[in-house]
Task: inverse folding
């Protein structure tokens, strides 16, 4: 099931880039990112209500580690979306999206450094190809 979710996530990211580039190019990126996050929050809260996810949930049940992780993840996502909107507003969509996808490489490096995830020859080869592909797309 995770594979289907990952494909949907990629398709959603592609549509997000297109929609931002087509519909929001002339607008203020900070305001548009803020509105985008409000719409996304309302949609996700509605899904939580529809699927009864709030039934047994309590913020008091979260530990300090979970709360810190949520705050840091929220800040990282906010910075990510804001800079993504700014990049799409000011740069060519294909270049911006290609460079944004270098996040795969960042995850490989950071997970190796902080989570002790093993990196093998295939991981290194794939990372190299991602960087090469990004370079080729961005320099054409």
Result:
């Amino acid at each position: 099931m995770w594979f289907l979710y990952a494909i949907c996530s990629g398709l959603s990211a592609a549509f997000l880039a297109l929609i931002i580039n087509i519909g929001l190019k002339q607008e203020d990126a900070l305001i548009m990112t803020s509105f985008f996050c409000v719409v996304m929050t309302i949609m996700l809260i509605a899904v939580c209500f529809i699927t009864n996810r709030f039934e047994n949930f309590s913020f008091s049940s979260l530990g300090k580690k979970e709360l810190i992780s949520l705050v840091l993840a929220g800040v990282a996502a906010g910075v990510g979306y804001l800079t993504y909107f700014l990049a799409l507003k000011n740069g060519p969509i294909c270049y911006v999206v290609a460079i944004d996808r270098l996040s795969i490489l960042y995850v490989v490096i950071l997970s190796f450094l902080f989570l002790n995830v093993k990196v093998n020859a295939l991981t290194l080869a794939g990372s190299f190809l991602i960087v090469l592909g990004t370079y080729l797309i961005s320099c054409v």
About this structure: The chain has a mean pLDDT of 91. The two ends are 36 Å apart (CA to CA). The longest helix spans residues 64-90. The helical segments are 2-23, 29-50, 64-90, 93-100, 103-115, 121-138.
